[in-house]
């Protein structure tokens, strides 16, 4: 699913999207704690996530990619 799909979903069904988003966030937090990545994250979301979730989601995806790359760079050294 593309970012546009989620942006449209957020616009058309804001309450459903919020429930979905909350569940995804809780899963993300649980998983990152379980696999030891919590040291890379602050789990207090910025206000931007509440006001512009589609844009914030794109930025989060980029940030996760950077963490993934940095984590593998660290393992290689």
List keywords for this structure.
4 helices; globular; 0% strand; 77 residues; single chain; mainly alpha
Q: Can you offer a commentary on this structure?
A:
This protein is mainly alpha-helical. The protein has one domain. It is 78% helix and 0% strand. The protein has four helices and no strands. Helix 1 crosses helix 2 (14-34) and helix 1 (3-12) runs antiparallel to helix 4. The termini are far apart. The model has no long low-confidence stretch (mean pLDDT 80).
Topology:
Elements: H1 3-12, H2 14-34, H3 47-51, H4 53-76
Helix pairs in contact: 1-2, 1-4
The dominant shape is globular
Q: Would you report the number of β strands?
A: 0
Helical segment count: 4
Number of separate domains: 1
Order of H and E elements: HHHH
The poorly predicted ranges are: none
Q: Estimate the helix proportion, in percent.
A: over 70%
Brief digest:
The chain is mainly α and 77 residues long. The chain has helices spanning 3-12, 14-34, 47-51, 53-76. It has one domain (3-76).
